[in-house]
Amino acid sequence: QALDCQWGVLESVWNVSELPVRWTNDKKTCAMGEGCQETLMLIENGPQVNLVLTKDCTLAQDQEVQVTEHRTGPGLSVISYTHVCRHRDSCNSLSTTDAFWSPSPAAVPGTMRCPVCFSRHNCPENAPEQICPEGHTHCYNGVLKLRGGRIATNLRVQGCMPKPGCDLLNGTQKIGPIDVSENCNPKSDTLTCHRGSMLQMGRNLAQEPVEWDSSMDQMCNAGEACQETLLLIDSGNKSLLVGSKGCSKAGAQDSQAVSLHSRPPGVLVASYTRFCSSDLCNTARSSSVLLTSLPKPAAPAPGGLQCPVCVQVFGSCSGSSNFVTCPKDTTHCYNGNIDLSGVAQHMYCHKGVYVNVEDDPTHTFNWTTEKVDTCDNGELCQETVLLIKAGPKTAVLATKGCFPQLIESVTFVKHTPPPGLTAVSFNNYCEDPLCNSQQSIADFWKPEMTSDTDMSTTLHCPTCVAVGTCLSAPSLPCPNGTTRCYRGKIELNGGGIDSSVEVKGCTNLIGCRLMARISAVGPMTVKEVCPHQSVYQSRKTESGATWLLVSVWCLGLLLPLLLQSLIHFS
Description:
The protein is mainly beta. The chain has 3 domains: 4-177, no CATH class; 192-292, no CATH class; 348-446 and 455-564, no CATH class.
């Protein structure tokens, strides 16, 4: 059964007089097999303490609480707390520093004076100084690089040390999930830059900013600077936005520019570029850095020219162009290709989440999205939908995006077949750009129609399906073949979905088995909870359901056969 773990990140500098520090954390449901981890790192530097905390799910093996003094005071000191557990929910429950840390005792002052600084940028040239403890004869000046556990920080440190050298961490290279290293070469000409790429398609990208963030970074080669670049192509009814962050070519000078390559009326092509020469300086968080500099002309009067309009990536416009009336003063139809080079090659996937209850999802549920996700290495595109039908209503929970997966596969599972309650899921992992492009569920969702003559005259059950909690559950006659009433909640987490679905209705199932004890549907972990019933041990799809590995070249031929060869649980 999946664990709930405390989840959060905290990085801050405190005065020693303000400790102990206390905190609270959010919670998240982990994937099956994952445990809870917590890592706390404290660096004491005279009157200040730098705190780094991360809590999350982890695949690491269980580890009893371990407190390590990497360097003892007086002067600069480093201590860490690490813990991995699986024995109960939220077992990573450390909530204060006073469980294992106390300030260093007052030291006999010496004659050496050193600047004292903690900074995630540059320490000031006139940083405040402290009198070092007796026996401390050198000033430390270095950068601690912390990577992992959703921490990506370059922490500049200045303080007192008893001997020269770049060894604040005493050779430590890893603390919990955090990789640690240090660099004490003030003349180092290598930078660390945010790294990543972004691709978005939509209708209003020239008017509405989109997030542009990166959780990764890279070490540049000597002489390189950090860069961030945006390119916007807007055809009027559809836009394309491409972004890149990383290291530039050697020799780039600090600069920032917005360029209009093609102006309205008609197609707009614009770009934003920035080069900078300090660690992690390419920090633009949204496309507003470009949009705020674009012209905002009044809506143009229509002209007499009509042109096909399309912006398409990884494909052709043939068959997808719409004819529109062009603005006044435009005279020609453009038709061309733009090749981009110098951008890191990434997998791009359609991205979206849909959670709703519908009367007829076959006709009302549109499984398309204009958002695009940029995948990390080792990730494929995925599209997953879970459908749960109770009476006339069907809950639809669908997700598209990137997900770590080793091999392409298509999975269709009837967790609970008719009569009565019905639960089915479809999942597709594929490795071509934007291949998670299923638009409809009509190929695999064909619920059985039940007439009045097929209904029992003796068995009636409260019937409902709702995201969250059912507000009402009318007692409805059950279909023939059902023998009892079911009541339970399906808790789902992953793929951008964090929801519970309450289900009541008629079934022939025995026990809490609406999901057939399956614990994962695509990227979503599944937890089924039923009151007053024992919860059966969950199992992965691979251990019970039939799922076929289909190479992409034959997917179109085999998918109809796959959907005809359904294996269900009883």
